[in-house]
């Protein structure tokens, strides 16, 4: 099985731009894609991790299974991760070169969720990454409402990109969703944020 190159994705935002009267220029950097994040050929994928960085269920378990045991070994050297923080490892057997591990809030704290995105994006810039893929952070077992999480994700990324020191930092940010419901939420939220 081969990886999926970012430039070959079916970009939902391209379809959305046609429906917007004045599409925001930053939409050229945003992709919404439904599929398996472990198959994406990007500089980094973001893992919705637990605080122990020990692997688990959902996207966390899928990333650890696809990366192989070396990922868990490296994670054990990092000393865990606090909610909102982000820590970097190699991608090992993934198509992505690196994994950014971030721990979402368990209490629907929007600031912590924003910090997950901001700290992950800062790691991308610090390490010279040009492409990154995010899952729906904290919406699984952590129970963050999907519609609120999509709004936080998109608005935080937009605000980060709009600052002068970040305006040329990344070539593509992929929001990788797993369900049709989340795909529709992101498609509905993009016009509300990127205006």
Automatic annotation (TrEMBL):
Domain Macro: 17-194
PROSITE patterns attached to this UniProt entry: MACRO
InterPro entries per the UniProt record, alphabetical: Macro_dom (IPR002589), Macro_dom-like (IPR043472)
One Pfam family here: Macro
Domain of life: Eukaryota
Listed NCBIfam families: PRK00431.1-6 (NF001664)
Protein's UniProt name: Protein de-ADP-ribosylation
Species: Dispira parvispora
């Amino acid at each position: 099985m081969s990886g999926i190159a970012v430039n070959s994705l079916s970009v939902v935002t391209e379809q959305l731009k046609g429906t917007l009267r004045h599409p925001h220029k930053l939409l050229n950097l945003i992709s919404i894609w439904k599929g398996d994040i472990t198959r994406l050929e990007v500089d980094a994928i973001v893992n919705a991790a637990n605080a122990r960085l020990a692997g688990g269920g959902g996207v966390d378990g899928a990333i650890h299974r696809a990366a192989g045991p070396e990922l868990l070994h490296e994670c054990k050297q990092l000393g865990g991760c606090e909610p909102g923080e982000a820590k970097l490892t190699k991608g090992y057997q993934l198509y992505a070169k690196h994994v950014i591990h971030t721990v979402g809030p368990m209490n629907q704290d929007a600031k912590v969720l924003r910090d997950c995105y901001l700290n992950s994006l800062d790691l991308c810039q610090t390490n010279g990454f040009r492409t990154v893929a995010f899952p729906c952070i904290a919406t699984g077992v952590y129970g963050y409402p999907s519609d609120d999480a999509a709004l936080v994700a998109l608005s935080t990324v937009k605000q980060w990109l709009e600052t002068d020191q970040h305006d040329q930092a990344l070539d593509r940010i992929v929001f990788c969703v797993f369900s049709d419901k989340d795909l529709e939420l992101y498609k509905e939220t993009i016009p509300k944020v990127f205006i």
